[in-house]
């Protein structure tokens, strides 16, 4: 997988940078080269971003977890904690995605960046006109990834809820010699009566709650009265 590299012939070079960013995003920038760090943060601020600067990887992680930026731009080779390690910590502990900067474009560096889920890789020296399109593309990709991750979490939760409901229905069927539809109706009607979600009731029924037996009896009694 090749990560996107910025082109020097960027088409936005002559655009007013203040018109490029429609929504202000918070961007963390980490580089041990003070000239590069200052140049990028000043350029991003002028372009309408809120830039946070860090002179090393440790500070980048600290500020990232504290301020929750929309994206981190990290120099790969920094003394102490490298940009690769900082990106790993930001992603694992803050769900913050990263773009990488480096004076090198060798295969090993690109592979390391890829393994850490880099959304882009840019070779220094870099100017702000080159950087902004890469940032906007990375922000869009980051949003897409987070949406997919949330959908995956929601789907997993739904599967787990359905599994708990199925187990609870099965237990009811066995205890009271009921068919599947009757057992499901008993649980659903009791949940409505108690103004609780069916999934919550099912979780209590399949858990290790000491009240589980009494709860099953209450559901069965309620079901019989309703018939």
TrEMBL record:
**Record's superkingdom?**
Bacteria
Q: Report the coiled-coil segments.
A: none
Domain Response regulatory: residue ranges: 26-139
**What biological processes does GO assign it?**
regulation of DNA-templated transcription
Cited PROSITE patterns = ANTAR (PS50921), RESPONSE_REGULATORY (PS50110)
Annotated ranges, domain ANTAR: 145-206
| InterPro entries registered for this protein in UniProt | ANTAR, CheY-like_superfamily, Sig_transdc_resp-reg_antiterm, Sig_transdc_resp-reg_receiver, WalR-like, WH-like_DNA-bd_sf
Cellular component GO terms, alphabetical: cytosol; protein-DNA complex
Residues with PTM 4-aspartylphosphate = 75
Which Pfam families does UniProt cross-reference here? ANTAR, Response_reg
A GO molecular-function term, please? RNA binding
User: What are the UniProt keywords, alphabetically?
Assistant: DNA-binding, Phosphoprotein, Transcription, Transcription regulation, Two-component regulatory system
Read off the Gene3D superfamilies from this record.
Answer: 3.40.50.2300, Winged helix-like DNA-binding domain superfamily/Winged helix DNA-binding domain
Record-linked PANTHER family: REGULATOR OF RPOS, TWO-COMPONENT RESPONSE REGULATOR ORR33
Q: What is this protein called?
A: Response regulator
Source organism of the structure:
Sedimenticola thiotaurini
